[in-house]
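Protocol step 4 of 6: structure prediction from sequence.
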Amino acid sequence: MGWGGFADEFLVGIAMESLPRRAVLGFNPGNVSDDWEHLFAQAEAHLAAREARAPVRAPSNPSNPSNPSKADLLMPLKRYFGYSSFRPLQEEIIRDSLAGRDVFALLPTGGGKSLCFQLPALVRKGLTVVVSPLIALMKDQVDSLRANGIQAACLNSSLEGDQRRSVWRDLHQGRIRILYVAPERLFVGTLTEELKQWNLGAIAVDEAHCISEWGHDFRPEYRKLSELRTQFPEVPFIALTATATERVRSDILTQLHLRNPATYVASFNRPNLTYRVLPKAQAYSQVVAFLKSRPNDSGIIYCASRNSTEALAAKLNADRIPSLAYHAGLENDVRSRNQERFLRDEVRVVCATVAFGMGINKPNVRFVIHHDLPKNLEGYYQETGRAGRDGLPGECLLLFSAGDVAKQIGFIDEKTDEQERRIARQQLQQMVHYAESSECRRTDLLRYFGEAYPATGCGACDNCLSPRATYDGTLQAQKLLSCVFRIRQKSGFAVGLNHVVAVLTGSESEQVQRWGHQSLSTYGIGKELNRNEWGAIGRELVRLGLLQQDPGQFPTISLTDEGRAALRERRVIQLTRPREAAKPRTSKPGDIDCDELLFEKLRRLRKRLADEQGVPPYIVFGDTSLRHMARDKPVTDDGLLEIPGVGETKLRVYGEEFLTEIREHVRVQGNTAS
């Protein structure tokens, strides 16, 4: 018996027995498997189609959907989306996709990339499947499409049983034109086999940068999408993203096995956005001052941790600035409710981790604040791109501190995969260079993505609007370059910037002593500046091309040919003064200048030990003790006993674990950039 006969007998048999559908074979809605749900849905779809004496899928298409006329494209554009003309590159992308070509499209946030697969789905025959990484993103787009009168649905873990069965029934009856699917859901059950029966017209991979380990939001489940080309060799693919370097673009094409794709890369420039970077000093006061100067604007504040989002939102609410937290640790209903309230302008500020925002189309976000340093420039670009999606002005503020750099390095060191650590270090280095640069921010951002900005300045960033002062930094540069040279000359190997700074400032660390670097002529000649100031100078010399930072597990610095020439010829070197914050942090009595990265590591160790014992962290060691440890870096029992707050009992109870942490840090310190 063929499928049609089976379907008839199956449903008619149920009807004749007057049995509830879910009573058949002892099933109930709580335990019906996906495969049986599909079976019921297919049977119903077939019977409904037979009774209607119509094909299961009967979309309305132009006479030649692979080469539609201008009118064939403008009609659905106006009818369903309300536009009378295309944005740059949209029509070209849509035509190539309809012609059956694989397409790669990189359009900036707000550039209309979703239309590039949504409109063709209304013109071509068959179902368009859209692979999307986030449930929130799917919900937002499906809701928008349905509001526009387009039959769209999604399959993901948020659907209840009845909702899921309804989607399957609509798919079998040919009612769905666009189906959103999470990448992991594609390969569960029989979905890929069902797609072969549903006249699959195209596969769109949204947020395609997620497939690349070089991207800022790599998701391992995206890697399995490479299997789709084998299963659907004749189906055209379209991969879309708003952020991707040349390396990431190449990785996307390779991983998805795109065949001779038509490639479109729009400008990354967002001319309506203003970029600013401020030194982080009394961050909460800086945020409040920013928000109070824009009492009617809506925006996002990105924080590095879940706790930070909740603490910041609570403080803002106490100051009568309506705010909500958003992070992956919230219950699904709380997260969805908070998102909905923000989208509906019931609150004007969301304090969020990077879990918030991808694909959320809220056009009136007027500002994005990065309360903490982003991990990389791609993430920063995409997150700032959530401001001004409507083309009206948007402001982007980054609060930057050396302490945030130290925290990010600490997170990187916790990664177990060396390849991931290497990539993350390189990306963080680029982010720090952007934050400290005195160049036009827009020029820096576009250069990162391989695009040249055509003007000498944008007039819409802090460095263009109020250029930072420069000074004759020849003496400081000569000191640092000479120190790099002397260390290499004596030891025969390169070290990291941290160690160079330690020598310049006269550190008495055991590593300096062990390598004999206290005998160098450059030892202690830089005591007029603190470690953070020397680190900033070192990174600027890298940007100026006088030093190079080598990639690898332990990034080291060395002189370039230009650096040797500048040192030998005593060239005049102009350096940039740091930008002052509106409310600069003043030095307080008792401040202890130390290795901030080691301090963060020791704080995490202290927190873990305190949690295990159920005591407050200061019971283990106070911050004063940790900062002394991070400054002096003892690696022996006797050395640790010299630290204020360390006695025999604490040495016995905690000493070995703290010494192990310090020894490991010291082992790599000379090969780790600050």
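Step 5 (inspection) to follow. Residues 648-669 form the longest helix (22 residues).
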